[in-house]
């Protein structure tokens, strides 16, 4: 029996020398082509909501490419047969757009080589794109505390670190290191600040590392970040009045945390929290939730941290 491991033209030469009981046979050559077949089915991964009309779908490349390079993958929704395509040979993640808000979807993925499309993967878990409201639950399981400029922000619960106690503590940096790219203060700058902290050798294993590693169901590592100064102020304002919080730019100083909120899953313990906003080369901003006053502290001091996520 012959086993062929690649495509192409193959020739087999056979002859028989002969002996006292068997006549000699001249060499015979048989040539044939081993053709490619469709690739194996990809393995489906996690599906998650990305926006009110889109979802992400992860997949793993099949173990067999069918003897020809895989050139693309296609994700298809059920219902609706909404598709997305990635032109690549390996594993990856789709963003499927054009979904209908409020409809529950599952997804399958196929791989395409020169022969055509493979069999479909198994179906993903279900995803329901939806409109989010202040006080609701975000796709990462957090509390929605701010909707600004078309972007929605959710905060992690106070037990996010898994320690069973409110909010982990960490230093902003190992030393008093200047991270000049982490000076954003406004809403929308926290993620970039955190990335800059993580890129600094002196700060990469500190507060930024802790929040970037956070990956509850519905989100992935790297999606959560330390809030900027104004994003943290928005969290503070929400904790004071969850029904109608003041605008992010309105100072939280001099206000008191809502007692029901404080006692709940997302309430802030007394003490100060790191933001991702550098105040000066040796210090960063850290508001106190007991009085709402903003402070700046040397970066090598361990303070409480609370991740947020934008979508």
Describe what is shown at a glance:
The chain is mainly β and 311 residues long.
Describe the protein's architecture and organization:
- By secondary structure, the protein is mainly beta.
- It folds into two domains: 43-117, Immunoglobulins (Immunoglobulin-like, Sandwich), CATH 2.60.40; 143-310, no CATH class.
- 11% of the residues lie in helices and 31% in strands.
- The protein has four helices and 18 strands.
- The protein has helices at 190-199, 207-212, 229-240, 259-263; strands spanning 8-16, 25-34, 43-51, 54-60, 72-78, 83-86, 92-96, 106-113, 116-117, 143-148, 151-155, 169-171, 224-225, 278-280, 283-287, 294-298, 302-304, 308-310.
- The strands form six sheets. A four-stranded antiparallel β-sheet has the order 6-5-8-9, with no helix packed on it.
- A hairpin with a 2-residue loop joins β3 (43-51) and β4.
- The longest helix has 12 residues, at 229-240.
- The radius of gyration is 28 Å and the shape is elongated.
- The model has no long low-confidence stretch (mean pLDDT 91).
Features:
311 residues; mainly beta; Immunoglobulin-like; 2 domains; 4-stranded antiparallel beta sheet; 4 helices; 18 strands; 31% strand; elongated
Lay out the secondary structure:
Blueprint: E1 8-16, E2 25-34, E3 43-51, E4 54-60, E5 72-78, E6 83-86, E7 92-96, E8 106-113, E9 116-117, E10 143-148, E11 151-155, E12 169-171, H1 190-199, H2 207-212, E13 224-225, H3 229-240, H4 259-263, E14 278-280, E15 283-287, E16 294-298, E17 302-304, E18 308-310
Antiparallel strand pairs: 1-2, 3-4, 4-7, 5-6, 5-8, 8-9, 10-11, 11-18, 12-17, 13-18, 14-15, 15-16
Domain Fibronectin type-III: 41-131
Pfam families: fn3
InterPro entries: FN3_dom, FN3_sf, Ig-like_fold
């Amino acid at each position: 029996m012959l086993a062929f491991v690649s495509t192409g033209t193959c020739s087999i030469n056979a002859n028989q020398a002969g002996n006292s009981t068997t006549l000699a046979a001249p060499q015979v050559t048989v040539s044939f082509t081993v053709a490619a077949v469709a690739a194996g089915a990809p393995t489906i991964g996690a599906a998650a909501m990305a926006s009110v009309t889109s979802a992400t779908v992860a997949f793993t490349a099949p173990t067999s490419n069918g003897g020809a390079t895989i050139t693309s993958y296609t994700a298809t929704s059920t219902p609706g047969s909404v598709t997305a395509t990635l032109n690549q040979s390996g594993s990856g993640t789709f963003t499927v757009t054009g979904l209908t808000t409020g409809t529950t979807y599952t997804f399958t993925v196929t791989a395409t080589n020169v022969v055509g499309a493979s069999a479909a993967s198994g179906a993903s878990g279900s995803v329901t794109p939806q409109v989010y409201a202040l006080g609701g639950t975000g796709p990462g399981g957090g509390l929605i505390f701010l909707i600004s400029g078309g972007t929605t922000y959710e905060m992690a619960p106070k037990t996010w670190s898994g320690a069973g106690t409110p909010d982990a503590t960490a230093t902003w940096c190992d030393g008093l290191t200047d991270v000049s790219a982490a000076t954003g203060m406004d809403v929308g700058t926290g993620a970039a600040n955190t990335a800059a902290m993580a890129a600094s050798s002196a700060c990469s294993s500190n507060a930024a590392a802790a929040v970037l590693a956070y990956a509850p169901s519905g989100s992935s590592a790297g999606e959560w970040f330390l809030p900027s100064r104004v994003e943290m102020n928005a969290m503070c304002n929400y904790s004071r009045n969850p029904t109608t919080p003041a605008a992010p730019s309105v100072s939280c100083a001099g206000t008191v945390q809502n007692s029901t909120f404080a006692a709940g899953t997302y309430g802030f313990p007394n003490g100060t929290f790191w933001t991702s906003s550098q105040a000066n080369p040796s210090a960063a901003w850290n508001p106190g939730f007991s009085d709402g006053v903003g402070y700046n502290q040397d970066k090598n001091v361990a303070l409480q941290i609370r991740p947020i996520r934008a979508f």
